[in-house]
Amino acid sequence: MSTRVVITGTGIPAPLDPRRAGAGVLVRVDDELLLQFDVGRATTLRLAALGLACTDISAVFVTHHHSDHLIGLDDLVMTRWFDDPGPRGHLPVICPDGPCVRFCERMLEPWDDDLQVRQANEHQRAGPKAVIQSFAPTSIPQTIWRSGVVTVQAVTVHHEPVLPSVAYRVSTPCGDVAISGDTRVCDEFAELARGAQVVIHETMCAALLPDDPEWLPVIDYHAEAKQLGEMAAALQSPLLVLTHLLPPPRTVDEEQKYADQVRAGGFTGELVVGRDLDCVTLTAAGPPSARLRSESRSRGPV
User: Which of 4, 76, 114, 174 lies at a C-alpha separation of 20 to 30 Å from 282?
Assistant: First the structure.
């Protein structure tokens, strides 16, 4: 058995780099259980690049209702239905109570006219559907989903004024993966991630941001790289993957600035400044192993 973690998107709301899709992480347990965490822009294309169909996804988990984490969800739901208009085309979506639920309930309404035509033309009785499973988020980690020996925990994190915002931890026989969603560095996520073999965390590099007061509201609710390094050092995390990179690094030198700031916080474990489709494999036999994309990480543009 193995657990593979693939970063399906490392980007931010603005599409500044076409090589960085919107936020997303895929956790694949033994090629049988495929869990997608957040569904940013172009997630369906990243899944296609992995050789996966939308019907292969077992469930989607949503961290919060910011558009860059949800804008690809209707695409995933509808494409899944195109591939299989039967019950298999209905997608389980797990999310915290509140705005995420309201979004998921209404996201297909703008497509009503399109879907009526498709259903009539293809003689389908039912259209695409998100099967919503909501939970009441708490500041203490709680198990909110289970399939066999795999469990998912959730905890509230700090991305105010976006309420609620949650992080997730996936526990598998090969090890655990903690996924931050969007948040400042906070004790709640540290508690959730304690002992996890892989920590995947959104990251902001203040040294690369423009000196502009308009950025201050954005800076306030994201995880600064040095502080993240301090937290990961305290947790003694074996592997830290940086994603949702703000701003997106344009060169390998700028990627190195992210790494340098995390190291300045004291983190000495394995560190990956994420690119789309970077992969981490967990097995029962040893520590996590990162497989990075083939592009050179030593020079030039990323």
Answer: 76
**Of 132, 110, 128, which Cα lies nearest the Cα of 118?**
128
Cα–Cα dist 178/270, whole Å: 15
* Residue 104 and residue 92 in contact, taking contact as beta carbons nearer than 8 Å: no
Residue 45 phi/psi, 5-degree rounding, is -70, -35
Instruction: Decide if 151 contacts 114 (C-beta within 8 A).
Output: no
Q: What type of residue sits at position 249?
A: P
Dihedral sign for Cα 114, 116, 118, 121, please: negative
SS3 breakdown of the chain: % helix, strand, coil, rounded to 5?
30, 30, 40
Check if the beta carbon of residue 151 is closer than 8 Å to that of residue 145. Answer: yes
**111 burial type by CB count under 10 A (0-12 exposed, 13-18 middle, 19+ buried):** middle
95: which 2 tokens?
A: 């999310």
Tokens of 143: 């198990």
Query: What confidence score (pLDDT) does residue 31 get?
Result: 83
Q: Report the alpha-carbon distance of residue 81 to residue 77 in Å, rounded.
A: 6
The answer to pTM > 0.90 is: yes
Task: Write phi, then psi, for 246 (nearest 5 degrees).
Answer: -120, 110
| Res. 296: pLDDT tops 60 | no
Q: Which spans in the chain are helix H?
A: 43-49, 67-70, 73-83, 99-106, 112-122, 187-193, 216-220, 225-235, 252-264
Q: Which residues contact residue 125 at a Cβ distance below 8 angstroms, ignoring those fewer than 6 apart?
A: 119
**DSSP symbol at 163:** S
CA–CA separation, 124 vs 204, rounded Å?
Answer: 46
Q: What is the mean pLDDT of residues 181-194?
A: 97
Give the other-Cβ count within 10 Å of 283's Cβ.
15
Query: How large a percentage of the chain has pLDDT more than 70?
Result: 95
Tokens standing for residue 274: 């994420």
